[in-house]
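Handoff note, outgoing to incoming analyst
You'll be picking up this chain. Sequence as last confirmed:
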Amino acid sequence: MALMTGGRAVVESLKAHGVDTVFGIISTHTMHMYDALYDEQDSIRFIGGRHEHALGFMADGYSRVTGKPGVLLTSGGPGAADSMGSMGEAYHASSRILQITANCELELIDSGRGAIHEAKDQLGMFRSVTGWNALVDNLEALPDHFLEAFRRFRDGRPRPVELEIPTDLFEKQADVEVLPPREMPSVQLDPSKIEQAAEALKKARRPLIWVGRGVMLADATSELRHLAEALGAPVTTATTGKGAFPDDHPLGLGVGEFGGIREESPLGDFIKKCDLLLLIGSTMAYHRTVQQGLKLPSNVIQIDIDPNEIGKNYPVSLGIVGDAKITLQQILSLVDTKGGSQDNGYSNEVADLKESIRKSLVSQYPNELRTLEGIRSVLARDAIVVGDATVPNYRASRCLPFYEPNTYLGPTAWAGLGFGFPAGLGAKVGRPERQVVVITGDGGFQYNIQELGTAVQYGISPVVLVFNDNAWGVLKEIQSDTFNGRYLGTELTNPDFVKLAEAYGAGATRVHNLDELTKALGNALNDKVVHLIVVEMPDGFASFR
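Most recent structure output, in case you need it:
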């Protein structure tokens, strides 16, 4: 044990759990914590942003590409509240985010006496966007709270965690024993269910595998590939599972969710005709599956770390609660040597289906597909693409191929605007050696446009594609198609994004066609500063060429 302030105890606990990067905004409440961080700048990198909404997305992007917890430091009250949008995204994405936030003095919490930054039931505010949160009401207990937070990141389905520390505890001194991480007990699976799953997979004549982000969270992409190849089973992914299986693999079918393609699509018809679906680590998000009319086979085996996901949106024949990596390893031990019992010609049918899917995309999104293929042509195989809630990203989520895990980051069913740019900054912090490209719209970009200053200040250098139609494009399309062009609230008057980026010290280019875009992107990927490419598309993404 050692005598230290609460601020020092926080920093030492972060170090003990291997944290090397934190995102935050300094406040009067947290000065002692920042003073302790000052002494640790060689071991903990600090990224100071402009708004907590953006910082939460940065921590999320960082966590998704590294697999490590993203740490967010905020003040209590308004600073904490500003992070709610990004914490909601992290909750739905099962991201490992640790938010350390202040509260007012311990004796004044929830007193209503008017302490600075006092919130009404701040703990309650965060319960809807965290897997667990707690108030640290004595300094000696702080290391135990860190143990519990990091245990939750490793045991079961990860969710964001929020720890609140009263401002007077940051400066208080006490004898504190900083605790290192503890070993996790081995996971025990039901061997009879593993045998049932293996037997069903071996007997299936038309098996299909559907995967979500849970496969990447469990680092199970290698096991997935081995199982698919052993069975000759094609693989389709949820949008959040893009990259879990290579799109250019003969068995890779791309996204199975129905974004713009309805049930009569080749993939939708194929899914219904399969005799077994192995569903791994996917929530089967309602708005992209059930709501769009997606039909599954009657025989479904579902593997998920979260027991609440088993059979939530579709009935299952067999549910296995467990870590995807361990579960697939055990199934592989029973099927790897013998393979499956596929119909004759099944592999040829899969190859034909891949071509039919492409033709379907070409017929529906000819210009969009051409643009996205142009973007892909100048990117490295392991480039990271981060999308916002915008039409170009929705098309990218269906049309843009990915080959490596954790190389596509997009908003989940939470679908909050403003995710793309700051999450791209976090991804570049976490993987500085990788190309990072953001796909955002003019509206969503302005949610966190101020983080251009953060990017320049800290030398974070993604390329940001701002597709500019001077509108909330998704909603304007709906007003055009459904409300006879009665536009209200969907048209935007925007700044000159190029001049604004240059004012921040960022690189900037304006383009008007695909040739200009691919050339600008190829050049910008070598920039040492963040580079904005403003893609002018006054008639919308479908008309850009």
